[in-house]
From TrEMBL:
The keyword Transmembrane helix applies. The chain crosses the membrane at residues 12-30, 37-57, 63-88, 95-113, 133-155, 214-233, 263-281, 287-307, 366-394, 406-434, 446-468. The keyword Ribonucleoprotein does not apply. This is Uncharacterized protein. It comes from the Bacteria. Keywords: Membrane, Transmembrane, Transmembrane helix.
């Protein structure tokens, strides 16, 4: 009996993997050839992934995504809309899912040689405390994410995750690395032009690009300093001691000469490729990142004459790793169903107007109200980036006579905070899949103090700009 159950689970797992592979391939095909058969088949593959996950995954681990799907159904029924909105929502997150899956190839290059150790050895005399190590990780994440957006999370995390000393307790290590990565990433949305949320907000408010970037960068730097200060206060409570600093002693068998230059070359090629394909070839950033990652990774293994290892990595990646993504994919698909439902029924637009009415009734400053609206939407289960997509068409009508860049920055502050405190966001999904911890732990529980203080400082910063503008 146990053998038959194992066989059934094996077949269900393989069915999930096949559906996921086809879902990604169909999305990539749809970017160059739009056809109803392609889009409808995507929804079918998404439905197969949902059903196979429900059959084998513990239901307790799926409470949040099931709740999101239930809310979507309630919206369709209460608005007397067509159930086709749910079907369309199954492919709403196809770009995000493709990005989340294919960005993992970056780790193949990083782990192929001890690049990170060679890089950190350059400044080993300065990395003498956990706070300095935290500052390094935060800065690197912020820099990389400024080019790769959400892809910077796994890229940065995987740079350091294998450098943990064996005797270091897991919680202090996870806390240090995870908070540094998520905070460094979340601040990029305030000024990085390639970030989808930034692009949608600037377009929706008609805000001037460079003034918005400049003012957003100022707030991001304040957030960076605050993040380091908050960590310094939190580290004793989380028992973060000096041993959390990675071992930077050189193994005589490791040949590190020239690795820094090679590492910088491949990172530059990766980031430069993303920048060129996005800005000059006009590819959507969510499509440009995975495509460039695949191309650069392939070139890397060809140039290093390691194609057999590359083929083995692909086999393990598809045959084993894909099957471990069930909960993550289920959650993203359910979020996509909610986003698609809100867009198709028009209820998302109405919801935003309701929030604006409440802001006016409470007599709040409209700039503060906009920031809180975005955060509230996030806590209602609505991801911040899709929220900006949904709202971009009505942001130009915001009352108050404020400069467009201040309206944009108010919304972006809300997005930045939402990214690490909301119940479910793509960055938290990525981070939780990397360290194996819950969304609430890597998000709200570890970052609530930083989130509240940064929100208050951010609101004061924007009000100060409004006064002097």
């Amino acid at each position: 009996m146990k053998g038959s159950k194992g066989t059934i689970s094996h077949y269900i797992n393989n069915l999930f993997i096949i559906a996921l592979v086809l879902y990604i391939l169909l999305y990539l095909l749809s970017t160059i050839w739009e056809h109803p058969i392609i889009t409808e088949t995507q929804s079918i593959m998404a439905m197969i992934m949902l059903l196979t996950t429900l059959l084998v995954f513990p239901k307790r681990g799926l409470l949040l995504p099931i709740l999101l799907i239930t809310i979507s159904i309630i919206i369709v029924v209460s608005t007397s809309s067509s159930p086709i909105a749910l079907w369309i929502g199954l492919r709403e997150m196809n770009a995000i899912i493709t990005l989340v899956i294919l960005i993992g190839l970056v780790s193949w290059m990083i782990s192929h040689r001890p690049y990170v150790k060679a890089l950190m050895l350059l400044g080993k005399k300065k990395i003498t405390t956990p706070t300095r190590f935290y500052s390094l990780v935060t800065s690197i994440t912020h820099l990389i994410s400024s080019f790769m957006t959400v892809g910077g999370i796994p890229f940065s995390y995987q740079m350091f995750q294998n450098m943990k000393k064996p005797h270091v307790t897991q919680l202090p290590w996870d806390f240090t690395l995870s908070t540094a990565v998520i905070r460094g990433f979340s601040l990029t949305v305030l000024w990085t032009a390639v970030h989808p949320a930034f692009a949608y907000v600037v377009g929706g408010t008609n805000a001037p690009l460079f003034p918005t970037m400049f003012k957003g960068l100022g707030l991001a730097m304040i957030g960076m300093a605050l993040s380091i200060g908050i960590f310094s206060l939190q580290k004793s409570r989380k028992k973060v001691v000096d041993e959390v600093i990675p071992d930077l002693t050189m193994n005589p068998k490791e040949h590190l000469n020239g690795l820094v230059g090679k590492f910088l070359f491949w990172v530059s090629l990766l980031m430069g490729g993303i920048f060129i394909t996005h800005h000059f070839l006009k590819l959507d950033i969510l499509l440009a990142v995975p495509l460039v990652v695949v191309v650069v990774t392939t070139l890397y293994f060809i140039s290093n004459r390691a194609l057999p290892q590359y083929k083995k990595q692909w086999f393990t990646f598809v045959a084993i790793d894909f099957g471990k993504k069930k909960r993550e994919i289920f959650l993203m698909l359910s979020a996509g169903i909610l986003v698609g439902t809100l867009k198709e029924t028009g209820y998302g637009h109405d919801l935003f107007l309701y929030f604006l009415t409440i802001v006016e009734w409470l007599n709040l400053n409209i700039l503060m109200g906009l920031t809180l609206v975005v955060i509230l939407l996030g806590f209602c289960g609505f991801p911040p980036i899709p929220a900006m997509v949904l709202l971009s068409g009505i942001l130009i009508d915001i009352p108050g006579g404020y400069a467009p860049e201040l309206v944009a920055l108010s919304l972006l502050l809300g997005v930045s905070v939402t990214l690490f405190v909301a119940p479910v966001t793509v960055p938290l999904l990525l981070l939780a899949s990397l360290n194996g911890r819950s969304l609430s732990e890597v998000g709200l529980r570890w970052n609530i103090i930083f989130g509240i203080i940064f929100l208050v400082i951010g609101l004061v910063y924007i009000q100060g700009l409004a006064v002097f503008s």
